[in-house]
Amino acid sequence: MEVAEARGPQLVFKLPFREQNVGNYRLPALHGGVIGAFMEHSALLQILWNMESDFLPKVIDFSIDYLRPGRPETIFAECEVLRQGQRVANVSIRTWQSDPAKPVATARSHFLLSRPTEQTA
Amino acid sequence: MRSSQPPPIPGWQKRLRRSNLLRLWVARVFFRSIPHGRYIKLKPIGYRGRELTARMPYQEALIGNLETGALHSGAITALVDQTSGAAASLAVYPPSMVATLDLRLDYLRPAKAGAAIYACAEAYRVTKRIVFVRCTAHDGDREDPIAVGMSSFMRNGPIVKIP
Questions:
Q1: pLDDT grade, residue A121 (50/70/90)?
Q2: CA distance A59 to chain B (A)
Q3: Would residue A89 count as lying in a domain?
Q4: Could you tell me if A54 and A115 are in contact, meaning their C-beta atoms sit under 8 angstroms apart?
């Protein structure tokens, strides 16, 4: 996985095709878990790119909608940080392959951004 | 009235259709056929009452946090996705391919370093077109899960009623 381009604060991630990422060899199609993991990691890196912190954001929940099967080729992801607060960030992620107008999957996710402070305990 | 109904299904076939062992065997064949499943070493270990359990051993290649040694949440996504999909395709008769519509995961706590992860996926509702699956991922104690997932799948195969 690598960063394909950076449009200002917005990063575009890409995952080149590898044989081990196949989920269905008959179609063939990418593994849904690979697409999910790719989107999660993209969102994580986008948040790290946006903020300066030594705390690794933790994923709270992740909801994926699969729109079409992923073909065995490079897949791209773009994350939109809808809200990045002090404690939690809300990110929406979109993936596509050769045609950006045809998304493969979309996801919505929450990330925990900081350690719980001791004062509130 | 009775003559218009389909011929009765023999008892051995009914038992076969309900057989958990057969489904576990189908799950093993299915898991072996998936390149990514082989890569992250997923293996089904049990099937009972529409619930499939699969195991993922702890692997250094899948670590997400180098400080704690916890596995990357993406590895758990792949485990839950594949186990839920397999549970959905085994809950229908004959076992057939399903397409994932959506998958939602709640990560309750990080996984313990060094522990294998188990995913228990139960197809709790099967309709003519859609299968609903809930999945619990844990590292040994089912009452203390790492993550819970809810997913829905679209059926692609023929629709045959399980007797």
A1: very low
A2: 7
A3: yes
A4: no
pLDDT tens digits, B139-149: 989 999 999 99
What is the per-residue pLDDT across B9-36, written as a single tens digit (0 to 9) for each? 788 777 777 788 888 998 999 899 889 9
Per the domain annotation, does A50 fall within a domain? yes
Cis amide bond preceding A16, omega within 30: no
CA angle A101, B80, B97 (to 5 degrees): 70
Domain span at residue A21? 2-112
Check residues B25 and B163 and name the one with the higher pLDDT: B25
Indicate the pTM of the whole model. 0.86
- Note whether A62 contacts B104, CB cutoff 8 Å: yes
Q: What is the pLDDT of residues B80-106, one digit of tens each?
A: 999 999 999 998 877 788 888 999 999
| Contact assignment for B77 to A36 by CB distance below 8 Å | yes
* CATH at residue A44: 3.10.129.10
- Taking CB atoms and an 8 Å limit, are B101 and A32 in contact across chains? no
**Structure tokens that stand for B111 in this block:** 């996984």
Across residues A3-22, what is the average pLDDT? 83
Q: Does B149 contact A at CB distance below 8 Å? A: no
- How many CA atoms lie less than 13 Å away from B141 in the CB half-sphere? 4
A59 touching B, CB under 8 A?
yes
As beta bridge partners, residue B154 has B99, B130
Residue in A1, A63, A111 to test binding to B, most B beta-carbons within 10 Å: A63
Who's near B46: CB < 8 A, 6+ residues apart? B24, B52, B53
- Interface size between A and B, measured as CB pairs under 8 A: 94
Kindly state whether residue A9 falls inside one of the protein's structural domains. Answer: yes
In a domain, A118, yes or no: no
Residues from chain A that touch B67, judged by Cβ atoms under 8 A, are 56
